[in-house]
Write a structure and sequence with these properties.
By secondary structure, the protein is mainly alpha-helical. It has one domain: Chromosomal Replication Initiator Protein Dnaa, Chain: A. The chain contains 6 helices and no strands. Helix 3 crosses helix 5 and helix 3 crosses helix 6. The protein is globular. The N and C termini lie far apart (28 Å).
Length: 116
């Protein structure tokens, strides 16, 4: 069994890459689909999860988060983050999905304020 140590410090760009890669791996998507204009529920939910995780774990602005996720504007990022928080509180399946992605991501680096 190989135990991989978490890096002690990562740049925001490295964290963004790891978050996007983890979300894509969890959802069996490639990055092009996650950042595309597709509005299928599964893709949107995963994109919104990525937005929330990037916001919580990096110092990127809402505009820069939007750029990383397909050129969305800051209001789209705000809307996505709001949806994550609302669904987390009201939809058990969504909460489980978010927590699974967060768990996978916790193997990559130390998360800031993880949801419980």
């Amino acid at each position: 069994m190989v135990i991989r140590e978490k890096p002690t410090s990562l740049s925001d760009n490295d964290k963004v890459k790891r978050i996007i890669n983890t979300v894509c791996t969890y959802g069996s998507l490639n990055r092009d689909i996650l950042t595309s204009p597709w509005r299928k529920r599964e893709v949107c939910e995963l994109r919104h999860i990525a937005m929330e995780l990037i916001r919580k774990n990096t110092s990127l602005s809402l505009v820069n988060i939007g750029v990383e996720l397909g050129g969305r504007d800051h209001s789209s990022v705000i809307s996505g983050i709001t949806k994550v928080n609302d669904l987390f509180d009201t939809d058990k399946q969504f909460r489980d999905k978010y927590l699974q992605v967060q768990y996978l991501l916790s193997a990559e680096f130390e998360l800031t304020n993880p949801k419980q």
